[in-house]
């Protein structure tokens, strides 16, 4: 789907907020992935990865944002919501997106190792499920991808230095 300039700029504006969330994760030593949920052009939920800090495998940015939006909006169906996430969702997050009925998913960087919105598999376009969200990919992909690449590069450098000590 080709975006208009206005649509692209709107998606970039919201993705920048998700990138800020990713930066918060990075400052805490978490993998820098951020997610926000927008309804009626208003951010209703913001989250970032908290797996390392919380010691919970399910503490992905998308799941935390969905849970927060459910609580704030006081409903489990997010049929009018757009989820912005800096990295293509994994299978677990794609499942939560389907089950919570998120209307649109906008993501930045592709995930060739675990991406479940087209890279490894595509759960969001699986016709056997009862919900198929619209998907818009590649919004600020270079910026989102660079944040992850730099994080892992720095992590490898730190590990290398610690093994030499």
Automatic annotation (TrEMBL):
Gene3D superfamilies named in the record: Cytidine Deaminase, domain 2
Cofactor binding, note field: Binds 1 zinc ion per subunit.
GO molecular function: tRNA-specific adenosine-34 deaminase activity; zinc ion binding
Annotated positions binding Zn(2+): 60, 90, 93
Domain CMP/dCMP-type deaminase residue range list: 9-118
Family membership: Belongs to the cytidine and deoxycytidylate deaminase family. ADAT2 subfamily.
Main function: Catalyzes the deamination of adenosine to inosine at the wobble position 34 of tRNA(Arg2).
Protein name: tRNA-specific adenosine deaminase
Species this protein is from: Globicatella sulfidifaciens DSM 15739
Gene encoding the protein: tadA
């Amino acid at each position: 789907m080709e975006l208009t300039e206005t649509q692209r700029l709107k998606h970039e504006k919201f993705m920048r907020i998700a990138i800020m969330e990713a930066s918060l994760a990075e400052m805490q030593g978490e993998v820098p992935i951020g997610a926000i949920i927008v309804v009626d052009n208003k951010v209703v939920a913001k989250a970032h990865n908290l797996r390392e800090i919380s010691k919970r495998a399910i503490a992905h940015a998308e799941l935390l944002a969905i849970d927060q939006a459910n609580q704030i909006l006081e409903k489990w169906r997010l049929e009018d919501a757009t989820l912005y996430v800096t990295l293509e969702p994994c299978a677990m997050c794609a499942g939560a997106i389907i089950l919570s009925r998120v209307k649109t998913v906008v993501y930045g960087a592709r995930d060739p190792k675990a991406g479940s919105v087209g890279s490894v598999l595509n759960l969001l376009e699986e016709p056997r499920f009862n919900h198929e969200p619209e998907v818009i990919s590649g919004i600020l992909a270079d910026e989102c991808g660079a944040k992850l690449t730099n994080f892992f590069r720095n992590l490898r450098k730190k590990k290398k230095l610690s093994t030499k000590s």
